Amino acid sequence: MCSKKDEMKKKFRVVGTRPIRPDGIEKVTGQALYGADLHAPNMLVGKMLRINEPHAIIKSINISKAQKLPGVKAIITFQDFMEVSTNKTNDILENCLANKKVLYDGHAVAAVAAINSEIAKKALDLIDIELEMLPFVVDVDTAMQKGSPVVQLGRKHENVSDDFSDNVTSFCSFGHGILEDGYKNAAKVIERSFKTPSVHQGYIEPHACLASMTADGRSDLWCCTQGQYNVRAICADIMGIEESKLRVTASEIGGGFGGKTTVFIEPIALALSLKAGHPVKIVMTREEVFKATGPTVSSSIDIKMGMSKLGIITAAHAVIRYEGGAFPNETYELGAQSAFAAYDLKAVKSEGYNVLTNRPAQAAYRAPGAPQAIFAVESAVDELCEQLNLDPLETRLKNAAKKGTKASYGPTFDEIGLIATLESAKKHPHYAAPLAQNQGRGISCGFWFNFGGNTCVSLNINFDGTVGIIEGNPDIGGSRASISQMAAEELGIPLERIRTVIADTNSLGHNDVTDGSRVTFSVGLATIKAAKAAKKEMCKRVAKLWKIHEDAVIWKDGYVLPAGPNAGDQEPLSLKEIAAMSAQTGGPIAGHHEVNAEGAGVSFGVHLVDVEVDPETGQTKILRYTVFQDAGKAVHPSYVEGQMQGGSVQGIGWALNEEYIYDSSGKLQNSGFLDYRIPVASDLPMIEPVILEIPNPGHPYGVRGVGETSIVPPLAAICNAVSRATNIRFTELPLSPPKVLSAILGKE
Amino acid sequence: MKYSKPRTEKEATDILLAEKGMAKILAGGTDILVQMKAGHIEPDLIVDIKNIPGIKDVISRDGGYEIGAAVSGYDFNINPELKSFAPGIAEAFDLIGSTQIQGRCTMVGNLCNASPAADTVPALLASNCTAKIVGPKGIRECGIEKIPIGPGKTSLDKGEFVKSIFIPSRPDFSSDAYMRLTPRSEMDIAIVSAAAFVTLDSHGVCTNATISLGAVAPTVVRVKEAALLLIGTKLNDSALSRMANECKKACKPINDKRGTIEFRSHVAGVLAKRTALLAYERAGEKIE
Question: Which of A12, A260, A329, A601 has the most other CB atoms within 10 Å of its CB?
Fold first, then answer.
């Protein structure tokens, strides 16, 4: 066995190459099976009745007319479910189907299963709902004020001040040092307020599932999710069955970005199936996806920051108010923790509040909570640099967090790549490129925690010398490719001999959700260790065959050979030969590994962007965009680049045009892709990814998660660029043409 | 829901006339299929006109071109003759949807969908185009501006449908242009749009002009007062800014999720200026 340090320096054979993606042909030919692609005999169509009112008491639900419609097989409301064990599960269920109140525009109150979708739709029209309208609130700042309509009573934690309305459920505070001393030492102190809209993950595939549940509780669920084990845990709890009774299989997934880490339709389909005695399929429409699945939080943030003449941040304070819809959530904490993570600060404080509003329950979205908080912080840093006439990149370097920095949220950093990333940006030709009139350059740092978590991998050596890997995390970012690559590397066999598949919940032990940028790191780590276990077993088999001690054989580049001349002069045996003999040497050979992985290693990125603002229309064009990010070790660089580019594009959309627009009656105005404007390819320049590789000591190959950090910097980078191009400091997103033009005309 | 694919104009009008419920014409289908899928409309009858002889033809006549109701954006823009004849109409047509939509969408569909934000309508209006309407009483022709009467509403009578649009001949040294503002570069809907048609004399002085604006009122509007300000000029800055002001005044937009009244009115003037200049440049190229 070689030491960890040697392994870090080792030359890779397969890791770091760019093989063709294993799921490509299925996907481009339409053969891949997504959530809506499965059909079962005698399958029913499930549809939800949604209320287009922001806040109302449900006085009654009368299903008698709908029930009589021929072809209707089951109708359910919240009353069909039994009590669940936790507040959290109850919130999930109440988000799927309203209990006593409609809490947001689009909240479902009943569901129907019928023999076809026409009848199901007709049945929905026949359900009589009696509502008593209530005053509503959709804005975070308004919702906090005393006297504001209260979305849910009794959710306020004890540490929340009584100065706020009952919509303010939670509060947190992090930091160290004495702020007032820091402000005294500053050459300039600014106080600014920022706002960001709620934005949706915008995955192309709407939620879809096919459920079958029998009277004895045995059930099968096929669905589009980022975590089949999580779906199982929630649904088993809601349906009151043991986890072993419910098998959940994850379909191919057309994007998730965090939004598919919970459930919206799965328990409904199970309950309808149980009641109707048939399999039930539910497929959401795009409108339902926008109205009733989780966007990210919208925010209102105050920053007070002081900077010395030389550009040292002397003190910094953030008050972060996140609105995540009608149910409590923890995103505000992630915001407060990540806000100042990029900086080594003497005096820092970040406080966070969660606020309830009459909007759909927020769901995770790529680095949940970080883009909003870091947008505010990075905007303040940029404005101070501008006012003090300092280079914004040099200033960030001066304040950058490094090994040994006590982070504002508590921990002391180990090896981190922020300084190297900033240095790389500084050296890049982009930073020195000339700018023309109406153009501006913006920069921002970004941060994400990254996560390890519970992971199981089984690796089977087939008799023909090929290898089957079973893992339990839906592949949303190329994980099957990178896992196969790491196994090929470890086993010393060609990549083509490996196939990685994603198990259902009954075929492998628990795996945490595909989130926290954890899969390539954690599943990769478990795969390497499973491969090592299989290698050990193969060595054992060969030793047995050669009738020598196990220690007298070694594994090298896909072969077992005698450890030295004393062990004998047997011809080395390949993995293929060992596999072929496995029935004679003790049976099938496999390796597996189970771990609650730690050591994911935090991730930093730096983005540079050039924009041009049309002074007559307020329209912003992205001219050039460069992403610098530490990947630890890029297993499949094309996928890593894809993550860096994809996150940037989502951030560009967030900065420029995406927003949930509510009218004065609390209804969502843009529940479709026409008026919810995610960028299209022609809106973007080629986004240049610069991958840095600073090995993560927590992973055998140095891998660090890369999926989320890239969405964090674009908001501030673009806002800083637009502010510099127009000489107007913007503090509210999105920077849509009407908003920018209005500011330009206001200045004239 | 009934679907019919008549083989003659007469058959089409008869079927339309006989229908008691909601009848919709299908050419490209890029509006009605979307509306049906979203549940906004549930037609009782769909009449697919693509089998009617001549409906996909482009006919050159009287110095202009007659464009059949089923001619797609792709068909139009792949034709170099049409593109150089009416570059403003071509660029407006080309802006509808994506490459895939271009293979299906039609100008007549764009006109009869009656959206104030329709891309081709300001361009067709600036070029004084007419529409040929088939109905129970025979064929009639009218200016295209008479067809949309409000968002989603047309002046077409029961049993009538538009079979073609005529782009009339143009004097020497004439050209047109179309521009729109959309937050995205494609796959979007105009928040404001403008089209211009100008005719110059051999010295480059404007002798005739038409300016039309989209998405600033319930229907596309022609701004005569603005266009007049260009006549007798070489589109110098002061003429252009007076024209832009006149355009702003003509706007009666709304505040909505896509834009504010202030924004739409201001940008209408900006785009009118820019399209007028582009049309001027194109017409000017013909002089040299």
Answer: A260
One domain for residues A687 and A550? no
Task: Determine the residue of chain A that is closest to B185 in CA distance.
Answer: A683
Tell me whether residues B259 and A738 touch, CB distance under 8 A: yes
With CA atoms as reference, report the closest residue to A534 among A468, A474, A622: A468
* Per-residue confidence (pLDDT) for residue A10, from 0 to 100: 66
* Whole-number Å distance between alpha carbons of A45 and A36: 11
What is the total count of domains within chain B? 2
Query: To the nearest 10°, the Cα dihedral for B168, B173, B174, B179?
Result: 150
Asked if A680 has any chain B CB less than 8 Å from its own CB, the reply is yes
Token pair, residue A9, equals 């320096």
Residue A386, CA distances (Å) to A389, A556, A731, B225 in order: 5, 58, 15, 46
Which CATH number is B139's domain given?
3.30.465.10
Q: Which residues of A245-283 are buried (b: 16+ CB within 10 A; e: fewer)?
A: bbbbbbbbbbebbbbbbbbbbbbbbbbbbbbbebbbbbb
* Spatial separation of the C-alpha atoms in residues B27 and B107, rounded to whole Å: 10
Structure tokens at B159: 């049993």
Same domain, B246 and B182: yes
pTM of the entire structure? 0.96
The domain of B104 spans 2-115+130-167
Chain B residues touching residue A673 (CB < 8 angstroms): 187
Question: Nearest CA to CA, how far is A198 from chain B (Å)?
Answer: 15
Query: Which residues in A lie closer than 8 A to residue B263 (C-beta atoms)?
Result: 618, 737-738, 741-742
Q: Residue A463: which domain range?
A: 4-32+452-597
Alpha-carbon Rg of chain A, whole angstroms?
Answer: 27
Tell me the two tokens of residue A610: 């050039």
Is there a contact between A629 and A706 (Cβ–Cβ < 8 Å)?
Answer: yes
At A679, give phi and psi (nearest 5°). -65, 150
Answer yes or no: is B219 within a domain: yes
pLDDT tens column, B146-164: 999 999 999 999 999 999 9
What's the CATH number where A554 sits? Answer: 3.30.365.10
> Is the four-CA dihedral A381, A386, A391, A392 of positive or negative sign?
positive
B41 plus B88 within the same structural domain: yes
CB A352 within 8 A of CB A172: yes
B189 touches chain A (CB under 8 A): yes
Q: What is the pLDDT of residue A9?
A: 57
**According to the model, what pLDDT value does residue A360 have?**
98
Residue B81 lies in a domain: yes
A674 close to B (CB below 8 A)? yes
- A277 within domain boundaries: yes
Residues of chain A neighbouring B259 (CB-CB closer than 8 A): 737-738
Inter-chain touch A680–B185, beta carbons under 8 Å: yes
- Among the partner-chain residues A679, A680, A742, the one whose CB lies closest to the CB of B263 is A742
Spatial distance between the Cα atoms of B12 and B1, rounded to a whole number of angstroms: 16
| Residues B244 and B197 reside in one and the same domain | yes
Candidates A680, A684, A718, A744: best to mutate against B (most CBs of B within 10 A) is: A680
In this prediction the ipTM stands at: 0.95
Within-domain flag for A40: yes
* Closest chain B CA to residue A740: B263
Tell me the pLDDT tens digit for each residue of A415-462. Answer: 888 999 999 999 999 999 999 999 999 999 999 999 999 999 999 999
Closest CA to A545 of A577, A516, A576: A577
Domain end call among A597, A628, A662: A597
Which residues of chain A does B179 touch, with a Cβ-Cβ cutoff of 8 Å? none
Contact A661 B270 (CB under 8 A): no
* Distance in angstroms between the alpha carbons of the first and the last residue of chain A: 71
Span A570-581, mean pLDDT? 96
Q: How many folded domains does chain A comprise?
A: 3
Helix or strand (DSSP H, E) at A371 = helix A370-387
